[in-house]
Amino acid sequence: MTTVKSEFLKIMQERGFLHQCTNLEGLDQLLATEKVTAYCGVDPTGESLHVGHMIPYLMMRWFQKCGHNPIVLVGGVTGMIGDPKGDGESRQLLSEDDINRNVASISKFFRKIIDPLTLVNNADWLRNLNYIDFLRDYGTHFSINRMLAMESVKQRLERESSLTFLEFNYMILQGYDYLELYRKKGCRLQMAGADQWGNIIQGVELARRIDHAELFGLTAPLLTTASGKKMGKTEGGAVWLNADKCSPYDYYQYWRNTEDSDVGRFLRLFTELSIPEIKKLEALQGSEINEAKKILAFETTKMCHGEKAAAEAAETARQTFEEGAAAKGLPTVAIPRAKLAEGIPVFILFKDAGLASSGSEARRLIAQGGAQINDEKVANDKVVVNLDHLTADKTIKLSAGKKKHALVVMAD
Hints:
Largest sheet: 6 strands, mixed
Strand content: 5-15%
Helix content: 40-55%
């Protein structure tokens, strides 16, 4: 491993963020001697990011803590086009209203991670470009050969999947974004996940050819769990960062259920605990590793949702798993009294409570013996849940296995 001297790159190395760099020695020298401006981009294609998106913004958080200047770029224009995906599907085209609504929503997360936050929108310089002038001034600096060699493009061509000219323009516009931020903000570094390496190179090369400037690119590895699952994805769907899409309790439980062999790696990446403390936690063996998982879950939830929400989630989990109580902090589903009086098929209730993604998945859960009502095993999928299932506190506790729970509350 290359020895670095700048504080930021030392942190990136020891915590596992560092994957690729255009010129590590040159960037290290720059960071050690100057206050540097860097940016990380995001296309606002949804109302929330998920856990798998977090790493570049945690890098920016450390970047700021080391005395540098981070910028988050939202793609008001590039988000309307979409980065070509290798799976053969074009991204859904969004309206300007959709983009603006998504920008407002995801910005809440950025403000929790980076404070103070500098937010810019590439619509400010891309929307009014003259197409012919842009092609004449910049088109000659982009190599079709290099663009065709990009992994996402290669995958689409190998599968003979359609790749539109609109999508092909994405990498040109992202390269131009970097040049604009260099000119307007003095930005010298772009950070992203490893899948953006090719797009970063486009901007680095464009600035070198036109402005004779050396810009830098730094990427983090794309993360999977020890079992090979993509970060931020579960059987129930994505683990969203917005509380209205994934409750602090569910978020806490995602991290609490981390595989043993991932605990140390995730403590380094997703928390700000010291390295000596992390080494002590990851050295725990057997059932003691669960204490490390609780700390991981608390620290990650605190960063995303605040200390109060993290403490409440931890207490709900403690009551549910250690006392066997139907803790009030569990995710809830409100059912009208009249509907509960009529009775609801158990597999439908499990789906409505978010413990299964579909009725058929709920039926499988029941058939495998993993479904419980008020801690009693559900006999079969013919069971009808009604008022008789209400406990003394007028709730019904649903459980899918040992780790997923929800409360049914009766609404008037």
